[in-house]
Design goal:
The chain is an all-alpha fold. 72% of the residues lie in helices and 0% in strands. It folds into 2 domains: 250 residues, Up-down Bundle (Growth Hormone, Chain: A); 208 residues, Up-down Bundle (Growth Hormone, Chain: A), CATH 1.20.1250.20. It contains 22 helices and no strands. It is a multi-pass membrane protein.
């Protein structure tokens, strides 16, 4: 569901690529073929009539459409599996055997999918470093291979503890490493048509994620959970080969390791390590009070965010005895999420400045209310209606995240801001569903779990509503004190230190 963040990072990759092309020509030490990574020469590094370096121009198509298809498959398969975990969740419990009468079965089983989703966000800052160092193609292929191994190995065990590692850790980490390069590589091929490419990827991924719950329901009954994991691993196996299409036009370079070698040579080992850490982990975004409030609000809101995706299918089976059409619920969530992306994306373009954040406020508050209304439903049809609203809120929240980040910290730091935000979301996103599972075990029903899931989004939405007010107050105070609009003129930060897919060697351009 997080494939909607690709716009900001892909655009960042494009900007960094342009700067890298210009730097490579001005250096004059190596030719384009020598600086290419992964066996390809650098593209776009041509000189104009005056002899000056011409800015890099993406091809705006061509082989880029193949990359778009690969990115769509990546997003659809990865998040289709994660968002369809409600089906796998019921199969896991059936595979363990209901006769065990384990009073904590719901709590223990929930950790499998929760760990996998949480690892996507937890690994986000680390994946950015790998993308910078070894490139999009190698990182994505490595991640798809790890995800393939995780799903395949999950089919050879019935132990929950082992699946915590195989599905939760391996598949979750592999998903993160395979997913994030797809956010970056589009910026190598598109600039003027970047929005169109992002729209195609977001829309096309629904062709996989929407019918996948029905497919899992049908296949699971026919061949069982173990073979279902093997079938799902085939999606990741295909992604390994599709990742090879991420041919970087301007791949990352390792020049940064040599640029400051003389300067670092006079420092102690501790100082050198600290300098390298600061190069890759820039914490400047946390100096902004509005960003801290925004990040805290979202981290609070997502505590119960994944609960409906995991527990709804089991809830309707237990509450209404609906076992034949329960696959409709994740389909409604995925389909309406896609529609929500389109609606909120266009609506956000019409809302000026930081007022876009009120769309996130509305989506979180409505999401929380809908979660708390699930126990009030008296029929399966009512749950379907609630799923439509939940999917709409999901699409709205995630689409507006990147524009809000740009408004809070500026375009130069937006990618870093999103990366840290996703890292902060890892813990509450992981802990929410097991907590709801514990309530289910304790009260012997799902009502308390859904009431719990509705409270954090409402609280987080109320916290987010304060951000525009704090922003305006700080802006007025700075204007009175210094007469300078520091909030609208972010500090000069180089792309090479912040945006994934570009080297830190651009730091002193």
């Amino acid at each position: 569901m997080w494939d909607r963040l690709r716009g900001s990072r892909a655009a960042g990759g494009g900007r960094s690529a342009a700067a890298m092309a210009q730097r490579g020509e001005e250096g004059g030490e190596r030719g384009p073929a020598e600086e290419g990574g992964e066996g390809e020469p650098r593209a776009g590094a041509e000189r104009g009539p005056s002899g000056a370096a011409a800015p890099f121009q993406p091809p705006e198509g061509g082989f880029g459409w193949v990359v778009v298809f690969a990115a769509a498959w990546c997003n659809g398969s990865i998040f289709g599996i994660h968002n369809s975990f409600g089906i796998i969740y019921t199969m896991l419990q059936s595979d363990l055997g209901e006769d065990e009468k384990d009073p904590t079965l719901e709590f223990k089983t929930a950790w499998v999918g929760s760990l996998a989703m949480g690892m996507i966000f937890f690994c986000s800052p680390i994946v950015s470093i790998f993308t910078d160092r070894i490139g999009c193609r190698t990182t994505a292929a490595l991640g798809a291979a790890i995800a393939f191994i995780g799903l395949l190995s999950s089919s050879f065990t019935k132990s929950l503890e082992v699946r915590y590692f195989t599905y939760g850790i391996l598949f979750g980490c592999g998903s993160s490493f395979a997913f994030q390069p797809s956010l970056v590589i589009l910026g190598h091929y598109f600039k003027r048509r970047l929005g169109l490419a992002n729209g195609i990827v977001a829309g096309s991924s629904c062709l996989i994620s929407v019918p996948l719950p029905f497919f899992l329901k049908m296949v699971g009954k026919a061949i069982g959970l173990a073979h279902t994991f093997q079938v799902l691993s085939a999606l990741m196996l295909i992604q390994i080969f599709l990742s090879m299409t991420y041919r970087p036009l301007l791949p990352p370079s390792c020049d940064s390791q040599h640029d400051g070698q003389d300067k670092l040579g006079s420092r102690s080992v501790r100082q050198q390590c600290w300098a390298q850490m600061r190069k890759y982990f820039n914490l400047r975004v946390f100096r902004r009070k509005t960003y801290r409030i925004w990040a805290f609000g979202i981290a609070t809101a997502v505590l119960g965010y994944f609960v409906p995706y995991m527990h709804l299918v089991k809830y309707v089976e237990k509450e209404f005895g609906e076992t034949k059409n329960d696959w409709i619920l994740p389909v409604c969530l995925g389909g309406m999420s896609g529609l929500g992306r389109l609606i909120s994306g266009r609506t956000g373009d019409c809302i000026p400045g930081l007022k876009k954040i009120y769309l996130q406020v509305a989506s979180f508050v409505l999401f929380g209310i809908m979660c708390m209304m699930i126990p009030q439903c008296r029929g399966f049809e009512g749950v379907i209606v609630i799923c439509l609203f939940l999917g709409l809120c999901d699409g709205c929240f995630t689409t507006i995240m990147a524009p809000v980040a740009f408004e809070l910290v500026g375009p130069m730091q937006a990618s870093q801001a999103i990366g840290y935000l996703m890292g902060l979301m890892a813990v509450p996103m992981t802990a929410g569903t097991p907590i709801a599972g514990y309530f289910n075990d304790y009260f012997q029903n799902y009502h308390a779990g859904f009431y719990f899931a509705g409270v954090p989004p409402i609280i987080g939405g109320l916290v987010l509503s304060v951000v525009p007010l704090v922003h305006q107050r700080m802006l007025q105070k700075q204007r009175l004190d210094s007469g300078k609009d520091k909030m609208l003129t972010p500090e000069a930060v180089v792309n090479g230190e912040l945006l994934p897919g570009c080297p830190a060697s651009e730091a002193h351009m």
